[in-house]
UniProtKB/TrEMBL annotation:
Residues 1-29 form the signal peptide. InterPro entries: 6-blade_b-propeller_TolB-like, Cyt_c-like_dom, Cyt_c-like_dom_sf, DUF7133, Membrane-bound_put_N. Gene3D superfamilies: Cytochrome c-like domain (1.10.760.10), TolB, C-terminal domain (2.120.10.30). This is C-type cytochrome. The keyword Repressor does not apply. Keywords: Heme, Iron, Metal-binding, Plasmid, Signal. PANTHER family: LARGE, MULTIFUNCTIONAL SECRETED PROTEIN, LARGE, MULTIFUNCTIONAL SECRETED PROTEIN-RELATED. Residues 664-759 form the Cytochrome c domain. The lineage of its organism: Bacteria, Pseudomonadati, Pseudomonadota, Gammaproteobacteria, Alteromonadales. NCBIfam families: Piru_Ver_Nterm (TIGR02604). It comes from Catenovulum adriaticum.
Length: 794
């Protein structure tokens, strides 16, 4: 099916804007004028709109927000002098794109979602009219010139990945497999099966799983999720802790648990470490291969290890940004009325290409559609732990004065450049959290959708040639092996995925040879994990490779040896590895020692490097065995720590006896908390929050005054707060739900009742009458509460 100008409408509900922004185009000349005028206008609240929400930005400084064609849009960009931006495809060949994937032939598969917030009421957003399209570059000039719709009439597509026989993709609720046939350059969807009916079940539109990133360890990972997926050959025994959820004629799908991570978008580096975001913290990582922190249910990893913030949160727009959901708060702006910090960070990518100069390899790029820019972070590493800082001083790698430039994802491309996905939309904030202030901004500047537009841009280094691309379609397994040593990360990743999908064992000898002979540690790691994907990893190869392995390779070797059945040779080898352990390898080595129960070496490692989160992950379900084996080798202090974990039991008081109506309210609240209200998105399904977001579990603000809890839920909260003696100071404002007509007093009472009874909490449920009274008594509250103002609520 060929389409050029057809307008296909569907819901776009990616999870990047829990407190979304709108923005305004501003020419560089106008920007200078703002700098001049803002010195003169120290404080001008403007007209009161939206129930007391002041317009902080003076209206005379807010430019118009026209729709720009591609040529006009290009003139709106300010790109760092080392780089340049070029469109590779635009409307009508693509519109409303949110996710893309390059296939082995360099064709672009794209998800188009075109009914996200067509207006402030989100009219028609649930129509099943989105689609998956393929874009072709028929004349090989680097620009896409042909479009084909492959899957149509779908709802909210949010994830896309290749798999043997077709594609995996996810919509508003489910994960699907579509079998694809190709003939004469045309694709045909043969059938579509449901793989996981609960992939994105429940949750607010802005807080649903997405991603489907094929990672180094051959599993598909997701953002906003603690689930991972992997297709296995039909005759393969699935790993412990996983189970089958679907099968077809090609493979069976395993599902397993992993660490919960991220919000919108997911990426990785050369060593399989995943990078993700929360909309106000642009880049986070765990600094280790996944599936560690979830091993021991009796020990919770610290947030500093589980979600390491990489880099800074400051941003540098090149225009005024008045259209933010909390734009009535002066603290959101710098002196030029520009956004001060991230609020819609999404779509991260670690650059692993071969077109940028070497000093840019491994930088992190994060999209900030609220401020129409892309942030670049320089990553560094010490002892295996990643950190970062702004790549450029008070300047972004890409920024635009175009109101509707909305970068939402980015990808490493076959030619070694970066491909930027521009959703090109006026409204970002979903109606669930839309403030009356922001609704007024939308109306005032005509930001509701009236055209379907979309663009993909190529970000490249200005003074470096774009490499000629070798595509991988049609290559034999033996030919694919050499691409694991390619200088472009896209080629390495695609070669691994193709080899694992094909499950052709004729590649095994070549892979083993590459693992043993290459001096490139990245290629060595790729070869080893590709062998694991083929089900033929063995200890003798691990042992041989370890002789000349650096720390990065050894970290993979230690994870791989956990997959091999225990024997005395493995135990002896692991014992020898303790002698060469360092701060980078020791945490990962401890996992292998725990898996194979090499307790004497485990004790030596603790003595040398101390106990940490990895120690308890390694001891999962073996604490008693270790204590019995090593009692005389463990210090009394460490013994007490291990004993405490061994004896850990989640305790709670006897719950209040609830009436049937109260129990029903709590259950409805559970669905709302994890669903439409989206509370779990920040506070977590376990109510524990994170390093910046305060917990709801064991919180006096939840279990004590019903009126204060109701007031906060209605009008939100901003600024520092103390919970159980611990201070929290999030840069983001908790949104109130008073202006959300879908959230009735009954709904809010259900949520409040749930959180007062959930987890370790044991407080009396709340009635709708309480919310009715508080709503009436606080109707003049035009801004979120602070610690001082909430105390006035009795």
């Amino acid at each position: 099916m060929e389409l050029s100008t057809r307008k296909i409408i569907t819901l776009f509900s990616f999870s990047l804007v829990a407190f979304g922004y709108l923005s305004t185009p501003l020419s560089h000349a106008a920007d200078a004028e703002v700098s001049k005028k803002q010195l003169e206008i120290k404080s001008n609240p403007g007209d009161k709109k939206g129930h007391g929400m002041s317009e902080v930005v003076p209206r005379e400084l807010i430019p118009k927000a026209p729709i720009l064609n591609t040529k006009q849009a290009m003139s709106s960009f300010k790109v760092h002098p080392d780089f340049e931006l070029e469109p590779i495809v635009h409307e009508p060949l693509i519109f409303d794109p949110v996710v893309i994937q390059y296939d082995a032939a360099g064709r672009i598969w794209a998800l188009e979602m075109t009914t996200f917030m067509p207006n402030t009421q989100a009219d028609g957003e649930m129509k099943h009219e989105s689609q998956i399209v393929v874009l072709f570059d028929t004349d090989k000039d680097g620009k896409m010139d042909k479009r084909q719709v492959v899957v149509e009439k779908i709802l909210l597509p949010r994830a896309l990945a290749f798999v043997q026989g077709g594609i995996l993709w996810a919509d508003m609720t489910k994960l699907y497999f579509t079998k694809i046939a190709e003939a004469n350059g045309t694709f045909t969807a043969i059938r579509t099966d449901v793989v996981d009916p609960e992939y994105a079940k429940g949750g607010n539109l802005e807080h649903k799983p997405n991603g489907l990133l094929f990672n180094l360890d051959n599993w598909y990972y997701n953002a906003k999720s603690d689930k991972r997926y992997r297709p296995y050959p039909l005759d393969t025994q699935l790993p412990k802790g996983t189970h089958e959820i679907y099968r077809n004629e090609h493979w069976k799908m395993a599902i397993g648990q992993t660490e919960f991570r991220g919000q919108w978008g997911l990426t990785n580096d050369d060593y399989g470490r995943l990078y993700f975001n929360i909309n106000w913290t642009p880049l986070r990582t765990t600094s280790f291969l996944p599936n560690v922190a979830n091993r021991n249910p009796k020990h919770q990893f610290s947030e500093e290890v589980l979600q390491q913030a990489v880099g800074t949160t400051d941003v540098y727009p090149i225009r005024v940004t008045p259209g933010i959901n909390r734009g009535y708060q002066q603290s959101n702006y710098n002196e030029g009325y520009k956004l001060k910090q991230h609020t819609a960070a999404c779509g991260p990518v670690i650059y692993r290409g071969n077109q940028f100069p070497e000093q840019y390899y491994g930088i992190g790029l994060v999209q900030e559609p609220a401020a129409n820019l892309i942030k670049a972070t320089k990553l560094t590493e010490k002892n295996g732990v990643v950190s970062g800082k702004n790549l450029f001083k008070q300047q972004e790698i890409v920024a635009s004065t175009d109101e509707r430039f909305r970068p939402v994802n980015a990808y490493n491309a076959p030619d070694g450049t970066i491909t930027i996905v521009d959703f090109y939309q006026g409204i970002l904030q979903h109606k669930t959290f839309l403030t009356s202030y922001l609704a007024n901004q939308i109306k005032m500047r005509d930001l509701a959708r009236n055209k379907h537009i979309g663009r993909l841009y190529q970000l490249k280094h200005k003074n470096s040639a774009v490499p000629k691309v070798d595509y991988l379609n049609g290559l034999t397994p033996a030919q694919l092996v050499k691409y694991l040593n390619h200088e472009n990360g896209w080629h390495r990743d695609m070669a691994q995925q193709l080899l694992v999908m094909k499950q052709d064992k004729s590649a095994v000898d070549g892979l083993k040879n590459l693992a043993l002979t290459t001096v490139n540690p990245i290629a060595k790691i790729k070869a080893l994990w590709t062998l694991e994907g083929l089900g033929v990893i063995d200890f003798e190869l691990i042992k041989q490779v370890s002789v000349s392995a650096n720390s990065k390779v050894k970290r993979s070797l230690y994870r791989l040896v956990e997959l091999v059945p225990t024997n005395e040779k493995i135990k002896h080898w692991l014992q020898s590895q303790v002698k060469t352990a360092n701060a980078e390898t020791a945490p990962i080595l401890s996992l292998a020692l725990g898996t194979h129960q090499v307790w004497s070496a485990f004790s030596q490692l603790i003595e040398q490097f101390g106990m940490n989160d990895f120690t308890f992950a390694a001891l999962a379900n073996h604490e008693a065995d270790y204590l019995a084996s090593q009692s005389s080798q463990i210090s009394s202090e460490n013994k007490a720590k291990i004993t405490a974990v061994l004896n850990y039991v989640k305790t709670s008081e006897t719950k209040l006896e609830l009436t049937l109506a109260e129990r029903q309210s709590v259950e409805r609240g559970r669905g709302l908390f994890n669903g439409e209200a989206g509370c779990f998105g920040c506070h977590g399904t376990n109510g524990e929050g994170n390093a910046m977001i305060p917990p709801l579990n064991n919180s006096e603000w939840v279990t004590e005054s019903q009126n204060r809890l109701a007031a906060i839920m209605l009008h939100g909260f901003s600024g520092p707060i103390e919970v159980n003696g611990k201070n929290f100071s999030s840069p983001m404002t908790m949104p109130g739900l008073a202006q959300n007509s879908a959230m009735t007093n009954e709904h809010l009472a259900d949520i409040a009742s749930y959180i007062r009874q959930a987890w370790d909490n044991n407080a009396k449920p709340v009635t709708a009458d309480t919310f009715k009274t508080v709503r009436e008594n606080t109707k003049g509250q035009g801004s979120p509460y602070t610690l001082e103002t909430i105390k006035q609520v009795k």
